[in-house]
């Protein structure tokens, strides 16, 4: 099998820069293309990137469809569209203006509670819009307060800029820390806003459903849920204040002006291999040593703590936007976990359950085969070192709007994943 060599996913592609510290980066007039003839014309992703090197293009995503076919989504700044069109690639236009898409996400919503005077239960209107980081923190706190006997706030560690990496731990009838763990990480990549919203929808449904919904009750009685909806708080805040398309953390390093390490290339399994980069300017910069990003170090330690408690049954690292259930491994395309057939069966059932409400298609399989090779990622670590039964990543909606998923898709995206999770928890 011919492996795609995607060592530096984003290297050579420029990025827009803010004109001053306070200004937001503007993507007005950026046109987004999906290039469909990458292999046919360029051979592979790296060669495509070389051909784009003269443009200030931003690669948003790429996807390994088969050995013969890769698609790349790329944003071209105004003024360079003719230069891009001069290249011999076939491409469809995903968006005429990225700036319009960002505006169409809508303003960040206000946080409301169901009832201010009684219990501080968050209102379901939470899922009608995206929110500022401090409102997410309030949401977790209120949700915990409304479920006092079966939950606690948790903190896995501290980000590069000193913000706590927070979340919530939920448990059922067996009591605190009595069952194998379900461990969820959201917003590892800062710009993937839908991931924290969906993670929050899942914990919200568990909290409000535990008393009356037998499926929820049995899931929570069987597993301890540890959910960290925003594990990259520095990057997440930066996407709201400065650059909507920021991906990495906000870590600075000696001898470079480049900022940010890719938290999901900084885990120890497969560290530094294909699908990660040692170049601090790359969007997939792995760091120089496993766990030298404080966020990754915190997550590795937390996962190992859960392993010592009662083991990890299921880990899901939530991403967007490929609509794909990624099984281990990402760092190798030729080796697979021993239980891969069971995992594929569960992923197939999960994808089927996800499709039941809105017919949304989710592809599934080992990440290296169904998306692209990525080394030093969380799911491989949790599979190999933590010895979780299921070490997964799930790429949420959607394949046309990309990262700028309109706010009116938060709820349907959440509902379909809730359907998928209920299937998975009942059958794993
Ligand atoms: Zn991601």
Automatic annotation (TrEMBL):
Residues 129-428 form the Peptidase M14 domain. SUPFAM superfamilies: Protease propeptides/inhibitors (SSF54897), Zn-dependent exopeptidases (SSF53187). Its cofactor is Zn(2+). It comes from the Eukaryota. Residues 1-16 form the signal peptide. GO terms for biological process: proteolysis. This is Uu.00g061160.m01.CDS01. InterPro entries: CARBOXYPEPT_ZN_1 (IPR057246), Peptidase_M14 (IPR000834). Keywords: Carboxypeptidase, Hydrolase, Metal-binding, Metalloprotease, Protease, Signal, Zinc. The active site is at residue 395. It comes from Anthostomella pinea. Belongs to the peptidase M14 family. The keyword Glycoprotein does not apply. GO terms for molecular function: metallocarboxypeptidase activity; zinc ion binding. The lineage of its organism: Eukaryota, Fungi, Dikarya, Ascomycota, Pezizomycotina. It holds the Pfam family Peptidase_M14.
């Amino acid at each position: 099998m011919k492996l795609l060599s995607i060592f530096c996913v984003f290297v050579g592609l420029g990025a827009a820069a803010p004109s001053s510290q306070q200004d937001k980066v503007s993507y007005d007039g950026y046109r987004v293309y999906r290039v469909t003839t990458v292999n046919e014309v360029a051979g592979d992703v790296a060669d495509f990137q070389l051909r784009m090197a003269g443009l200030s293009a931003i690669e948003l995503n790429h996807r390994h469809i088969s050995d013969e076919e890769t698609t790349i989504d790329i944003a071209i700044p105004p003024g360079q569209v003719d230069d891009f069109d001069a290249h011999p690639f076939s491409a469809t236009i995903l968006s005429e203006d990225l700036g319009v898409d960002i505006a169409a996400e809508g303003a960040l919503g206000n946080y409301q509670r169901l009832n201010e005077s009684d219990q501080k239960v968050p209102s379901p209107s939470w899922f009608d819009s995206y929110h500022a980081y401090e409102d997410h923190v309030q949401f977790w706190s209120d949700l915990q307060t409304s479920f006092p006997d079966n939950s606690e706030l948790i903190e896995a560690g501290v980000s590069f800029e000193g913000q706590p990496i927070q979340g919530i731990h939920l448990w059922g009838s067996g009591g605190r820390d009595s069952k194998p763990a379900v461990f969820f990480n959201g917003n590892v990549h800062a710009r993937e806003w839908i991931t924290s919203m969906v993670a929050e929808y899942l914990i919200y449904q568990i909290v409000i459903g535990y008393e009356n919904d037998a499926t929820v009750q049995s899931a929570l009685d069987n597993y301890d849920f540890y959910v960290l909806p925003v594990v990259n708080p520095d990057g997440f805040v930066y996407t709201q204040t400065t650059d909507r398309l920021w991906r990495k953390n906000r870590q600075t390093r000696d001898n470079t002006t480049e900022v940010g390490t890719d938290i999901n290339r900084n885990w120890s399994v497969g560290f530094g291999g294909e699908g990660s980069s040692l170049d601090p300017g790359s969007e997939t910069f792995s760091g120089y040593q496993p766990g030298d990003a404080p966020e990754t170090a915190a997550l590795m330690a937390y996962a190992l703590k859960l392993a010592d408690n009662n083991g990890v049954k299921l880990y899901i690292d939530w991403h967007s936007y490929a609509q794909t259930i990624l099984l281990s491994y990402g760092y190798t395309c030729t080796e697979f976990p021993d239980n891969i057939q069971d995992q594929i069966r569960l992923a197939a059932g999960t994808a089927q359950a996800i499709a039941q409400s809105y017919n949304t298609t989710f592809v599934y399989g080992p990440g290296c085969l169904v998306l692209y090779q990525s080394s030093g990622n969380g799911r491989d670590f949790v599979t190999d070192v933590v010895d979780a039964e299921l070490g997964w990543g799930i790429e949420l909606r959607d394949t046309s709007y990309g990262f700028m998923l309109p706010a009116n898709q938060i709820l349907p995206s959440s509902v379909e994943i809730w359907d998928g999770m209920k299937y998975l928890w009942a059958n794993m």
